[in-house]
Write a structure and sequence with these properties.
- The chain is globular.
- Strand 4, helix 4 (75-88) and strand 5 form a beta-alpha-beta unit.
- The strands form 5 sheets. An 8-stranded mixed beta sheet has the order 2-12-11-4-5-6-7-3. An 8-stranded parallel beta barrel has the order 14-15-16-17-20-21-22-23, surrounded by 6 helices. Strands 8-9-10 form a 3-stranded antiparallel beta sheet, with no helix packed on it.
- The protein is 42% helix and 18% strand.
- Helix 1 (7-19) runs antiparallel to helix 2, helix 10 runs parallel beside helix 14 and helix 21 crosses helix 22 (535-548).
- The protein has 3 domains: 7-32, no CATH class; 44-183, Phosphohistidine domain (Glucose Oxidase, domain 1), CATH 3.50.30; 196-235 and 283-293 and 377-548, TIM Barrel (Alpha-Beta Barrel), CATH 3.20.20.
- It has 550 residues and is of the alpha/beta class.
Amino acid sequence: MNNGKSAEEEIRFLLDQVKQGLIDGAHAVKALEISRFNEILHPVINAGGVEGLPKWTGGISGAPGAAVGRVYFSSGALLKARKLALRRGEDTHCILVLPFTLADDVKAIEVAAGVLTAQGGFSAHASVMARQYGKVSLVAPEMNITGKRASLGALVFGEGDTVTLDVPGSGISAVYLGAAEITEPNLAGSALFDFIALAKGFIKNFQIRSNAETPADLERALSFGAEGIGLCRTEHMFFKPHRINTFRELILSDSDAARKNALEKIKVMQRDDFYRIFKIMAGKDVTIRLLDAPLHEFMPRSDTELMGYLDHISRTETLCTRDEIIARIEMLNEFNPMLGRRGCRIAISYPEIYAMQVRAVFEAVQTLRDENIDVRPEIMIPLVMNAAELKTIVFGKRVTGADYTGIADIAPLPFKVGAMIELPAAVLGAASIARYAQFFSFGTNDLTQTTLGLSRDDAAGSMPAYTHYDLLEGNPFMVLDEGVKELISLGVNRGRLTRPDLVCGLCGEQGADPAAIRFCIDSGIDYVSCSPYAVPVAILAAAQIQLEKQ
């Protein structure tokens, strides 16, 4: 109970009680409701701050908080408007409104105040990325988008209109037409950090890591108490405007020379990225997930993007017509890309991509070790299906007419290699896979959808009916499904039969859910990894659970 105190006031009160010796630290940690952290970490609407504003209520919470901004219906339009506002010294707060988002929308999500989508759910791309960057996200399946206008019931707004998103940590979300009064979080001098340090002292043999790849997110994760990086998504490093076209050169190259040239340019970018990441995280484990996104996600999605890419290649030695580029893009399209050529499938088809990334990692590692900095790299292979696949990628293979060079032959220094367990087949084959992996990371977003046959991006369409008839106990992309839990336990047990010291982690979006953390601790899992803004919640949950067991 908060007795009318703000979250900050309650935390300061508990810490003061500990300091005076009136209660012990364990009592203080157990007394704080986990949900109270949301009041400190995310913007909230002021009492009475939305009076008189037209509103729509409902939707699925993607990331909590409140956001006010002008509406834009494409990433390009939002980025252009924000750049112009910066130049003019005007308000830069924008809301991205789309049917759904893809990987190349990350650059807009990163700078937007909030994201409103019509498709998806808690584990959809927009929701995951919003939580990563501390932005507000709401999924509104009832939203209709036509051109540069959208409607939610009677609420209608167009491009440039100001809306407010209100997504509380618990309760009903709302969209308001107009600007509400909100209070932004101010963590400078907050007692939150002292409370996190207090809670961490009660966590034994279990870690809270973070999913992060940008310097800002890494610093934030550290400040919130993360013990390492459990998931660094390397594909997100390629979507910045000055990089995306170089990666497109690689994918669309029609000769070994052109591919080699593009790979060398990308390696330099990756090496610099990894150098910064490892330096910030000195002394802590950093799990680098090699490229996972389907290749078509890097391709131009609009005529404007296509023209920009054609202008780019006109300044290179690449000789391709517009029709040839379009034909190559169409060849990359897949009917079901989330189960198509992504993850380690990319490595089997294009081994030079993973080879380039590994070289970039270890060039950065060597430079930092020369500077006497403690670097702890872990290489993770995503979407592993079976042991033969992982063995080939790690150790290579020789067949008639071709040799496959494994990443172990490329890395000049010892390193840990792990498998991301996201498929039921990988769970069943965990004993064999563990022969070639020193750690497992259970990616519960994909493991949930491949186990239940539910798309995390489209589940919002079926969830209302399933909820109405009590066919599922909650949204399985928010709360771990019992069947998925059983598979994880099976994978841990089978893997450790082969490798008793196998390290196991969970890095899905359920990683900060207290119930999932309890399951992980009970199942002998070593760590969870979640978005930076969820780290404090996960730390408090883990501390409370372990205190219960004392």
